[in-house]
């Protein structure tokens, strides 16, 4: 297949453009998340773009959004967007009408672990009453929230989504704070305190900014004691679900971990119950589901063939639409050039996913 590439800009041009934008401030489109089309997306690592025509494949499938993912370090995304390859990718997405977002486990970059040596009160307390720099923060530390908000804006100037939607996730599946001020708050509520502070800072930079509250692992439960501020939207990620059966099944056992206090439900339909509870707290029209239908990373390396079932995907989308969910995306991690060599062209699965999205 011929891939039509736009002329890339050089690294020097990118750095000059970035410097100018930092001085002048960003120029944003008029569209707001409230008026934007429904998200029909995939989430990829930058490395997955070794399958060089991902934007064209997405466009043919009716996918209108590509989220770039960083599991641990934001510099990976910075280096990608600063590269000729990254600039070509962004230009091609723009030409094809594909939105680009950045979905990030960001806390350790927003609050550098090096700050442990300056002010330990910024970091969480464990169950034994000891401060620790391992994972997340203490959301009752004004100093921590100030640093996190400032860094969120700095990263937003570099990784600016075309949609105005920002995804600064907590550390992956990690614990939150047990200090006296935080002890009575759930992980969801502690995360929301941080997200509320981030959205206030971002809206001074980008007036249309909205920020994800990811309901995932420790933050699955709907918050009760902390309310989302304007601009916070729900992102629901049923990570341990059984992908061989529809999400509405009350007989399909999930891949629930054996750890004490694991909030993941025992059966698939339990995720829908959790989603319904969250949609009582967050604005339903802005809610997004982040699924795993095309997520090869669940099956390890070397990449196994993703067991994508179009019938399950269609049933899931119908269940989400019935609850009022407009925005749906899926991880498609590790569907890259190596995957295509091992298992053949993945366009059939990408197209089937797009057809399921566009059928409802």
Number of structurally distinct domains: 2
Fraction of residues in β-strands: 5-15%
Regions with little confidence, pLDDT below 50 for 5+ residues = 1-35
Can you count the beta strands? 8
Number of helices: 11
Largest sheet data: 8 strands, parallel, barrel
> Percent of residues in helical segments?
25-40%
Mean pLDDT: 90
Order of helices and strands: HEHEHHEHHEHEEHEHEHH
* N- and C-termini, Cα separation: 30 Å
Helix/sheet category: alpha/beta
Overall, the morphology is globular
Spatial arrangement of strands, main beta sheet:
1-2-3-4-5-6-7-8
Radius of gyration: 20 Å
Task: Give a quick precis of the structure.
The chain has about 350 residues and is of the alpha/beta class. It contains eleven helices and eight strands.
3D architecture notes:
This protein is an alpha/beta fold. The chain has 2 domains: 37-103 and 237-360, no CATH class; 106-206, no CATH class. The protein is 35% helix and 12% strand. The protein has 11 helices and 8 strands. The protein has helices at residues 11-24, 54-61, 75-82, 84-96, 107-110, 142-158, 187-205, 268-279, 310-322, 337-343, 347-358, and strands at 40-44, 65-70, 99-105, 165-169, 210-215, 232-236, 288-291, 327-331. It has an 8-stranded parallel beta barrel with strand order 1-2-3-4-5-6-7-8, surrounded by 4 helices. α6 (142-158) packs across α7 (187-205) and α9 (310-322) runs parallel beside α11. It is globular and about 55 Å long. 47% of the residues are buried. The model is unreliable at 1-35 (pLDDT under 50).
């Amino acid at each position: 297949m011929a891939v039509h590439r736009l002329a890339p800009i050089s690294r020097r041009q990118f750095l000059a453009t970035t410097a100018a934008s930092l001085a002048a401030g960003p120029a944003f489109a008029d569209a707001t998340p409230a008026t934007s089309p429904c998200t029909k997306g995939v989430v990829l690592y930058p490395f997955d773009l070794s399958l060089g025509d991902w934007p064209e494949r997405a466009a043919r499938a009716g996918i209108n959004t590509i989220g770039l993912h960083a599991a641990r370090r934001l510099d990976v995304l910075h280096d990608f967007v600063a590269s000729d390859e990254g600039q070509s990718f962004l230009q091609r997405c723009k030409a094809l009408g594909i939105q680009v977002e950045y979905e990030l486990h960001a806390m350790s970059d927003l609050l550098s672990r090096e700050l442990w040596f300056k002010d330990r009160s910024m970091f969480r307390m464990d169950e034994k009453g000891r401060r620790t720099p391992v994972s997340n923060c203490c959301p009752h530390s004004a100093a921590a929230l100030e640093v996190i908000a400032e860094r969120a804006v700095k990263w937003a100037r570099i990784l600016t989504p075309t949609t105005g939607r920002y995804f600064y996730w907590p550390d992956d599946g990690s614990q939150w704070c047990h200090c006296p001020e935080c002890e009575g708050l759930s992980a969801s509520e502690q995360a929301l305190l941080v997200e509320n502070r981030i959205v206030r800072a971002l809206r001074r930079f980008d007036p249309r900014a909205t920020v994800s509250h990811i309901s995932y692992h420790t933050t699955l439960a709907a918050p009760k004691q902390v309310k989302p501020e304007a601009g916070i939207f729900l992102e629901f990620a049923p990570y341990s679900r059984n992908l061989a059966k529809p999400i509405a099944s009350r007989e399909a056992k999930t891949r629930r971990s054996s750890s004490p206090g694991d909030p993941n439900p025992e059966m698939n339909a339990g995720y829908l119950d959790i989603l319904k509870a969250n949609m009582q707290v967050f604005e339903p029209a802005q809610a997004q589901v982040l699924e795993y239908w095309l997520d090869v990373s669940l099956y390890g390396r070397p990449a196994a063939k993703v067991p994508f079932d179009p019938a399950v995907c269609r049933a899931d989308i119908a269940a989400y639409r019935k609850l009022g969910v407009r925005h749906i995306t899926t991880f498609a991690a590790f569907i890259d050039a190596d995957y295509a060599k091992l298992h053949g062209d993945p366009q059939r699965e990408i197209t089937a996913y797009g057809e399921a999205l566009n059928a409802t």
